[in-house]
Amino acid sequence: MKILIIDDEPAIVQFLKDGLEANMYVIESATDGERGAFLGRTGTYDLIILDYMLPKLSGAEVLKEIRQENKHIPVLMLTVKSELRDKDELFRLGADDYLTKPFLFDELLLHVRALLKRPAKVEGEFYKVDNLTLNTRTKIIRRGSQEIYLTRREFALLEYLMINRNKIVSRNQILEHVWDYNADPFSNTVETHLASLRRKLNSGRNRNLIHTFTGRGYKLALNKLSER
Amino acid sequence: MKILIIDDEPAIVQFLKDGLEANMYVIESATDGERGAFLGRTGTYDLIILDYMLPKLSGAEVLKEIRQENKHIPVLMLTVKSELRDKDELFRLGADDYLTKPFLFDELLLHVRALLKRPAKVEGEFYKVDNLTLNTRTKIIRRGSQEIYLTRREFALLEYLMINRNKIVSRNQILEHVWDYNADPFSNTVETHLASLRRKLNSGRNRNLIHTFTGRGYKLALNKLSER
DNA sequence: ACTAAACCTTTAAATATCCTTAAGGCCGGC
DNA sequence: GCCGGCCTTAAGGATATTTAAAGGTTTAGT
After folding, report:
1. Is the CB of B224 inside 8 Å of chain A's CB atoms?
2. Which residues contact B168 (CB under 8 A, 6 or more apart)?
3. Widest pairwise Cα distance in chain B
4. Closest Cα to residue A211, out of A159, A165, A146?
5. Residue B119 pLDDT exceeds 80
6. Which pLDDT tens digit goes with each residue over A51-68?
7. Would you say residue A228 has pLDDT above 50?
8. Average pLDDT along chain A
9. Any idea what the Cα angle at residue B63 is, between residues B58 and B69, rounded to 5°?
10. Residue B82 forms contact with A (CB below 8 Å)
11. Is the terminal CB of chain A with fewer CB neighbours within 10 Å at N or C?
12. Is B64 exposed, middle or buried (0-12, 13-18, 19+ CB in 10 A)?
């Protein structure tokens, strides 16, 4: 899951980034409204965290720009109580949720989880394919009863495959959803991570669940071809 | 365990602080209601000790503010008998317990212990992971039969890890619960204390119980990964 | 109030982990 | 059987963590 943070205070951005990365989210950030609006319009995110008070382009304007692009990405707004005249104002602008500063990180995390659950991305507490499970709350991966240790990138990759299980996802889709804009599309880092993910998932006598479709992409499923 | 003291008399604050620190609690304090309410709302405490009579914002008002933030932190109120018309008044406001001044420190300590036991933070007299035990009453740490001497900060750190045993806690969570607001989040004092804690706990041929999850935090547990 | 010890924090260097890059071999499609 | 795309492995670079040591502050004893 990829989250965009737009806030002009570097310390806050860092605080949110660290905390969210510790919870296995992929983070991109912008420290002014202009850059934030650009990323929000052009990037691929599952959630945007947007400060109300911003230089260059206010939070409200950024939100408007994003919404114009017909995107219905969940947007969580951060406000200072004194700034907030009317909370309905925020919803009218198109925000999905808001939080008044200061807040505890755990509070934010609850809101983030709730928002990410909405767009039918997450049905229950678990994703499951064969005997492979991903717990969306604890971020624990298991193959059968054995817990599997994954790095952040590997986790984000597997999560994306799990969300799209039984469907073919292209290399570019993966790159868009799991890597940030710095990623070099000509490098083979996706393939490398897929390899190490397969190695970790297939240990023992477990069957391979990540199937390659040459020229098309990858599919996480019990069988390469669907049979009914 | 971190305690917030809100009292306008510096001498009382000092008295409580010294005594509680001697019992391995981490203390923060405020000498007026405004500051107290701010800390109470924004900080992370396991208990708040609140004087009824305060300048700027009365104890009752401070309590109301804290409770508005939906927090159910235990609050211990301190009153002078003459101030207290009706003790039910305090409970109605949301206090969990009260004490009338003057009192003996040991009395206070009993109340503090009782309150901290409530929120399922402490089950019995001991925390235990492998052959490592922490006695919540005597504050004695043992690895097997060997007693281990820890400094206050090390103790608070281990206690926090013990409360959250078998769960990953991030560096920021640790900072929030074990250090006070003065702590510089960019220094590596947490890491340094973890190192010295590990050194003390792992002496001899004991296995390491504090496991690192790069980019995510630390977990106190028998094994890094769980197998069921 | 002074001194010494204990403790906590800071800095910096060493180490470990993770991510990316690059090269060579393998496999599947044609 | 050839070619291009994919996989694997290893090495290098970047980032994160651990360790060591010195400096500063607090605490405790006299």
Report:
1. yes
2. A22, B213, B216, B217, B218, B219
3. 60
4. A165
5. no
6. 999 998 999 999 999 999
7. no
8. 91
9. 135
10. no
11. C
12. middle
Q: Which residues from A are below 8 Å from B216, CB to CB? A: 21-24, 152
* Contacts of the segment A159-167: beta carbons below 8 A, 24+ positions apart: A159/A1, A159/A24, A159/A127, A159/A134, A161/A210, A161/A218, A161/A220, A162/A127, A162/A129, A162/A134, A162/A220, A163/A121, A163/A127, A164/A220, A165/A127, A165/A129, A165/A219, A165/A220, A165/A221, A166/A219, A166/A220, A166/A221, A166/A226, A167/A219
Name the strands in the sheet holding B210-213, side by side, starting at the edge strand that comes first in the sequence. B168-169, B217-220, B210-213
pLDDT tens-digit series, residues B168-223: 999 999 999 999 998 999 999 999 999 999 999 998 888 999 999 999 999 999 99
pLDDT higher than 50, residue B13: yes
Q: Is A225 on the interface with B (CB under 8 A)?
A: no
Cα–Cα nearest to A161, from A188, A137, A141, A182: A141
Rounded CA–C1' distance between B115 and C9, in angstroms: 32
Q: What is the pLDDT of residue A122?
A: 66
CA distance B147 to chain A (A): 33
The Cα of A188 is separated from the nearest Cα of chain B by a number of Å equal to 23
Write out pLDDT tens, residues B20-74.
999 999 999 999 999 999 999 888 999 999 999 898 899 999 999 998 876 789 9
Q: Reduced to 3 DSSP states, what percent helix, strand and coil does chain B have, rounded to the nearest 5?
A: 40, 20, 40
Asked if B172 lies within 8 A of A147 by C-beta distance, the reply is no
Asked whether B17 and B30 are in contact (CB, 8 A), the reply is no
Enumerate the residues of chain A whose CB falls inside 8 A of the CB of residue B224: 149
**Coil, strand or helix: which one is B70?**
coil
Q: How far apart are CA A49 and CA B23, in angstroms?
A: 41
